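Help needed: design a sequence for this.
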């Protein structure tokens, strides 16, 4: 890293992300993409990588989730005051939207590391005196509003972000686009470089997180022409972003020299989505210190000093006595069960095998797969007591996602006398940290190949929680059957219809719970502790954001 500091002396990598997850008190994230961005920044600070991050302030947050007794999701704004955490800068810039000058101010948050490193984060804010009322609202809601609102946000983030960095005096070596939301920064760079795509490509890095065509932002050119009224600009967008509709990811692909997916499998899927592009793979990781529970931190500090900044030291976890490993896990589990019982009154048991599922509530994540056969769940519960904890938000416009929550609540009611099930509302970073450290088994059941990466299982592994997952995303790389956890369903390259795959997944889900997982947990504790150790030594040591950021440095940033 010292060599990088020398090469980039006085220069920065500008990391653009629509959402960044720093803490539950700063609700500028919706899910995995934003939490990953936060971990990226934390590792950059730890490793003294010269990074500056740019995002939107999202004054009213994503939303605060309230659930009624039937599982109906009610959304409330989650307003917060940036002044509590950040410094308002004096500098302002403006962008043209509908031929109006929209002024942008900036808040500075310094992400400081225990190692002494610091990454400045610039939060862009259009709630500026002199802007029209509708323009002052552009940076209010993360992923709120319609296509018009989203495109306005992307103009502010991409074009406004480049202008703000220049105004603040940053010298930028590379622009790293975390997903396509910020790709309009390349339009601004083209205008600054004589519309020479070769020069711009040298400046740009693009990380895609979306393995399905429908997930990439696309805008009708009628809307583009209305908001960006400069004909030359619109012609550039058509040239590099698609002739029929403006595809933000295609625009980024055409104007970046380095492009990557977030797992090896996702890189392959992305090449099929966008044939002809060279798409590398840098598998995601998580910030080890942030996502390790206090109980395991204390243990690692004692036996593996320096682990927080060298997570690869976790490979030596066998040097920690099994009794202390189990005690750390038990304390984390007790803290979670106490929280669940305080919130829900469901009366969960410390000793029962506790299964966790927490992520965005949307159709492809299949939160209800484990509830497909309630009689089979009862049978498993007779073999050894199980209990389930769910959490997650559905996007306000995702009716199918909201229905999934209601279905979980129905199953909770049906199984009330047999199996303890809880759904914890308003999933955020604090609750995530409790869940990934406090359950015994982490469940992940996406429809293949829609999981680009998934990082919650990596967080679980740092806490010795065992993974049980469909073979998709990162788990293809982390899975060794019966050693680091278990897989359900077909092998990664096995060609089955969606119906055949689902049948195979359900068969494995229930059979492995009944014949392998539950008996091991209750009857072979030494074997279970071996899985805990393997999760840490074989998964956590590698699937961390320090390793990820070192790869970005050597492959993308130099």
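Sure. Designed sequence:
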């Amino acid at each position: 890293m010292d060599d990088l500091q020398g090469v980039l002396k006085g220069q920065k990598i500008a990391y653009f992300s629509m959402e960044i997850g720093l803490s539950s008190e700063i609700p500028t994230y919706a899910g995995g993409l934003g939490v990953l961005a936060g971990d990226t920044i934390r590792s950059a600070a730890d490793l003294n990588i010269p990074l500056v991050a740019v995002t939107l302030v999202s004054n009213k947050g994503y939303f605060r989730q309230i659930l009624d007794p039937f599982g109906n999701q009610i959304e409330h704004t989650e307003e917060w005051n940036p002044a509590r955490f950040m410094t308002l800068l004096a500098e302002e810039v403006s962008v043209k939207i509908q031929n109006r000058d929209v002024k942008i101010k900036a808040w500075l948050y310094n992400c400081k590391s225990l190692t002494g490193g610091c990454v400045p984060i610039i939060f862009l804010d259009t709630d500026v005196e002199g802007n029209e009322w509708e323009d002052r609202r552009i940076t209010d809601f993360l992923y709120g509003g319609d296509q018009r609102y989203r495109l306005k946000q992307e103009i502010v983030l991409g074009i406004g972000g480049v202008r703000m960095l220049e105004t603040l005096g940053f010298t930028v070596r590379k622009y790293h686009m975390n997903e396509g939301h910020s790709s309009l920064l390349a339009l601004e760079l083209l205008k600054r470089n004589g519309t020479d795509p070769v020069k711009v490509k040298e400046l740009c890095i693009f990380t895609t997180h979306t393995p399905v065509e429908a997930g990439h932002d696309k805008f009708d050119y009628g809307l583009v022409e209305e908001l960006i009224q400069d004909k030359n600009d619109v012609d550039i967008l058509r040239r590099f972003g698609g002739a029929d509709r403006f595809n933000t990811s295609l625009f980024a692909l055409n104007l970046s020299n380095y492009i990557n997916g977030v797992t090896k499998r996702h890189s392959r899927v992305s090449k099929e989505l966008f044939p002809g592009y060279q798409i590398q793979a840098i598998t995601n990781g998580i910030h080890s210190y942030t996502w390790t529970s206090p109980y395991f931190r204390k243990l690692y500090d004692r036996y593996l000093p320096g682990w927080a900044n060298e997570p690869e030291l976790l490979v030596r976890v066998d040097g920690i006595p099994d009794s202390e490993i189990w005690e750390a896990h038990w304390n984390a589990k007790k803290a979670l069960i106490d929280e669940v019982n305080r919130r829900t009154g469901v009366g969960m048991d410390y000793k029962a095998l506790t299964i966790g599922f927490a992520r965005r509530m949307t159709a492809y994540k299949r939160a209800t797969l484990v509830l497909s056969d309630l009689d089979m769940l009862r049978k498993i519960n007779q073999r050894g007591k199980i209990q389930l904890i769910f959490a997650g938000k559905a996007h306000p416009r995702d009716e199918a996602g909201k229905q999934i929550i209601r279905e979980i609540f129905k199953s909770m009611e049906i199984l009330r006398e047999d199996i303890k099930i809880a759904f914890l509302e308003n999933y955020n970073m604090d609750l995530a940290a409790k869940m990934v450290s406090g359950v015994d088994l982490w469940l992940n059941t996406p429809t293949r190949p829609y999981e680009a990466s998934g990082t919650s299982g990596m967080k679980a592994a740092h806490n010795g929680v065992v993974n049980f997952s469909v073979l998709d995303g990162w788990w293809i790389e982390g899975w060794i059957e019966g050693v680091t956890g278990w897989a359900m369903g077909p092998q990664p390259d096995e060609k089955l219809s969606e119906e055949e795959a689902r049948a195979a997944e359900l068969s494995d889900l229930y059979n492995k719970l009944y014949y392998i997982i539950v008996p091991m947990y209750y009857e072979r504790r030494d074997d279970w502790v071996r899985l805990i150790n393997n999760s840490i030594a074989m998964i956590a040591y590698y699937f961390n954001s320090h390793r990820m950021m070192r790869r970005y440095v050597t492959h993308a940033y130099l």
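The longest strand covers residues 100-112.
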